[in-house]
Write a structure and sequence with these properties.
9 strands; 3 helices
């Protein structure tokens, strides 16, 4: 499942250099996520952005521990994959990939979960 991402990126088994990844760290989401708006009118749940750091990805109450592969970098683009272990009592592994791009001066990141689910592209939240 996750093999195609690794094959495309030509990744080895070594971990990524944190310096290569620093541009990814911060808070990412659409306008509603960044503002923490209600998911639906009259509801009780707020939209949450993705918060990415050197070892963790947080989305609302969900946390994932990340083990990075080497990053593939270009001047305005970075692709990197990670093994993600998400959850607490019943942790679930995911193959997670991040695509960071700058287009027309706007930073955006797309997350790919197990080749099935895609979040993004998401801009960086203003407070990040």
């Amino acid at each position: 499942m996750f093999a195609w991402l690794l094959g495309i990126a030509g990744l080895a088994t070594a971990t990524a250099n944190t310096r290569d990844l620093e541009v990814l760290f911060g808070t990412w989401g659409n306008d509603q996520q960044c503002a923490g708006e209600m998911i639906k009118e009259g509801g009780t749940l707020r939209a949450k952005p993705f918060i990415l750091g050197p070892e963790w990805l947080k989305h609302g109450a969900a946390w994932c521990r990340l083990d990075w592969f080497p990053a593939q970098t270009q001047p305005s683009r970075i692709f990197v994959a990670a093994r993600a272990l998400c959850g607490e009592d019943a942790a679930r592994p995911y193959g997670l990939a991040f695509l960071y791009e700058v287009q027309d001066g706007i930073e955006q990141m797309t997350l790919f979960w197990d080749e099935v689910l895609v979040n993004g592209p998401l801009p960086r939240c203003a407070s990040s």
